[in-house]
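look at this record:
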Amino acid sequence: MASDRTAGAAECARALAAGEVTSRALVERALTRIQAAQPSLNAFRVVRAEAALAEAEAADRKLAAGERGPLLGVPVAVKDDMDVAGEPTAFGCPGAFPPVAEDGEAVRRLRAAGAVIVGKTNTCELGQWPFTEGPAFGATRNPWHPDHTPGGSSGGSAAAVAAGLVPAALGSDGAGSIRIPAAWTHLVGIKPQRGRISTWPLPESFQGITVNGTLARTVTDAALLLDAASGNHAGDLHRPPALEVSAAVGRDPGRLRIALSLRPPFTAVPARLDPRVRACVLALAERLAALGHVVEEAEPRYGQIGLTFLPRATAGLAERVREVPFPELLDRRTRDAARLGRLLGGAPLRVARRAEAVLHRRVGALFESYDVVLAPTTAAPPPRVGTLVHMNGWNTDRAMIAACPYAWPWNVLGWPGVNVPAGFVDDGLPVGAQLLGPAHSEPLLVSLAAQLEADRRWHEWWPPHPAAADARAA
């Protein structure tokens, strides 16, 4: 196999099955890279060194006995909002959290596919913000530019994959929390259909706006991890029909009608697309047209969709805050947002949930004329570490909306979206674009993303900065 510093999950799985490498060797090297990068990138909240090595040895025994699995023996990471048996689930919060007794359903399915969970990655407090830093664990940094954030809230997973510490990782996305860090770290990030990957032990997460998804350097790896983690627990509220997304990676998407959407949805504060990001998205649109697709400017009819997002997001946050062992240690912004969520958790929340069907019809009307929407993932490049962490609640919201106004409507709708790398601005800051589709359109989006990847070869670019290079060399 290629060096495991640069090999993806699919290549690792192939080499393991062929006997070219052992799981113990792959996991040892991943743990060495994580240890080397932790002082500079700080991607992990929990590193499961001893447990992961034991699991790798068990995988090697299965491989030697002729067993096979999609990820048997492959090291991966999961975000620290997912339960891993024997580990705490702090979800970015300060204070001591007890270890949980059982894996969450997504982790259970990864293990059933043979994956070795090497650790749990950092996330901002209860996943609220597009940066990954806080008093509980410090600041997670961007492997492309360590002075900048990798985004959030799945910033630890994104940093770990972008730096080559692990070949793929799970994250979660409640307002862009997979797609934003994927955009800002030059990764493929899949936010799947609501319910595609279980959120159990929660029947749904954040009143249905948050879903679990995948981050990887290639479409193949992101789809492989998605298929491995997909499926439902009997207690899940959302149970979409099963799909095999990996099969779409090599499939010709055909000649598609693509709506180029550059206008941010309505927000309470101004949001403006940075001209540098706009140029990258337009360049991607030109490549899609050169590949034979019809690309036209057209905007979804979002209307006042934000009025339905706020009650769901804040009521969901209030539910999480009630479960935190030491709520007095939480950020003032978290406590204020939870207070608002308790106020909106009655009639406003019920109205917001009922509005989803109307939004499906109104936004979905665009798909009578188009197959896919192409939009910026963020309005701006990644900000510097520390830019938002000490702001008050109102200024944080303003800065967050200004930088990231594009991703969250698809969380309200519950439909799939895929971030693809769109290039670099200034001296090498990554930015991304979203491919967005209607319900259950993951295979189409993945097929189109794979076609773009074959054309753009984005997976051949690696972070040039010493922190990432030192970790890969470890």
User: Anything to note?
Assistant: The CA atoms of residues 88 and 98 lie 5 Å apart.
